[in-house]
């Protein structure tokens, strides 16, 4: 973990869940950590907790990534404060369960900005500086839904974007490896966070057998460590994630989409 010591990290979606736990884990390495989300109170609580338990410093930046200007504003904030981001974590994200054709265009714009556009734009902005410094690491929080065909309708679109994130990671590594910049895609399975509630899934975490469910802390620690070890597409160990991916290879995509679609509608 020597790479992290005394460096600067930027973590989007750090007010809860996986992002919150990534910040807490990074705080073990005496870092300067820029935390980004909309809920200022949660970010301030995180700052207080981290700064009273470690030598790390937390910089709170409240931003709504649904706004298309936010990635550039985040970059400009870092530039004007001379924060050189060594470890970028694109984690913010959510799903939705409405039918695709009933999801209004404004909400669709927000969704695409948070899950896709902000990730691509922040990567573009910070990777240029990493390339010039010949040093940098980026952790993109993806999902096993980007590997297993993950249902029809809204959850399918979520999976399509996570699939893009995985492919994007591979493309970036083929270009930036020679500049000593590494990118990892972290693929968690069921993780107990605020995700289900925000997405409006009928399936509660209490409906998921505990063997399949992982904590945000487990996912965060594995994700950071995998990135530092140079993993490219990293499937979180535990929760039968790897088993599900293995089995999915033998099941027709049509059946998989049906099964995942049913999971989302579980209890309806
Ligand atoms: N939980 C799972 O089972 C699971 C599985 C695979 C992958 N993932 C991925 O893990 C990542 C983190 O999700 P999570 O499970 O930790 O869920 P979570 O607890 O709901 O956290 C989502 C984070 O994203 C932030 N966010 C959402 N909309 C935003 C916006 N418009 N602007 C800025 N920040 C925004 C939220 O902050 P604010 O609301 O304060 O803005 C929050 O900090 C996501 O990319 C998700 O796709 C989750």
Strand content: 15-25%
Q: Output mean pLDDT.
A: 92
Number of strands: 9
CATH class: Alpha Beta
Strand order of the largest sheet: 3-2-1-4-5-6-9
- Calculate Rg over CA atoms: 18 Å
Weakly predicted, low-confidence segments: none
Describe the overall structure:
- The protein is an alpha/beta fold and about 270 residues long.
- It has one domain (about 10-265): Rossmann fold (3-Layer(aba) Sandwich).
- It has 9 helices and 9 strands.
- Helix 4 links the parallel strand 4 and strand 5 (about 135-140).
- The longest helix is centred in the middle third of the chain and has 29 residues, at about 105-135.
- The radius of gyration is 18 Å and the shape is globular.
- NADP nicotinamide-adenine-dinucleotide phosphate (NAP) binds near residues 66 and 190.
Write out key terms for the chains shown:
two-stranded parallel sheet, binds NADP nicotinamide-adenine-dinucleotide phosphate, 47% helix, 268 residues, globular, Rossmann fold, 9 helices, seven-stranded parallel sheet, alpha/beta
């Amino acid at each position: 973990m020597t790479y992290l010591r005394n460096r600067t990290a930027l973590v989007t979606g750090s007010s809860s869940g996986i992002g919150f736990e990534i910040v807490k884990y990074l705080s073990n390495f005496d870092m300067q950590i820029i935390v980004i989300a909309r809920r200022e109170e949660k970010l301030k609580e995180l700052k207080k907790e981290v700064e009273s338990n470690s030598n790390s410093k937390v910089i709170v930046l409240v931003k709504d990534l649904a706004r298309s200007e936010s990635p550039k504003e985040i970059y400009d904030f870092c530039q004007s404060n001379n924060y050189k981001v060594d470890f970028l974590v694109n984690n913010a994200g959510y799903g939705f369960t409405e039918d695709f054709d009933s999801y209004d265009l404004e909400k669709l714009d927000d969704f695409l900005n948070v899950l896709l556009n902000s990730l691509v734009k922040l990567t573009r902005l910070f990777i240029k500086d990493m390339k010039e410094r010949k040093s940098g690491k980026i952790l993109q929080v993806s999902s096993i839904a980007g590997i297993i065909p993950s249902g029809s309708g809204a959850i399918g679109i979520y999976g399509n974007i996570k699939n893009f994130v995985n492919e994007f990671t591979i493309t970036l590594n083929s270009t930036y490896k020679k500049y000593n910049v590494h990118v990892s895609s972290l693929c968690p399975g069921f993780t107990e966070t605020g995700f289900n509630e925000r997405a409006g899934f009928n399936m509660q975490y209490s409906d998921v057998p505990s063997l399949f469910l992982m904590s945000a802390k487990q996912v965060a620690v594995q994700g950071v460590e995998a990135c530092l070890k140079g993993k490219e597409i990293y499937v979180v160990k535990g929760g039968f994630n790897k088993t599900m991916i293995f089995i999915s290879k033998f099941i027709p995509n049509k059946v998989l989409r049906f099964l995942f679609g049913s999971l989302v509608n579980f209890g309806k």
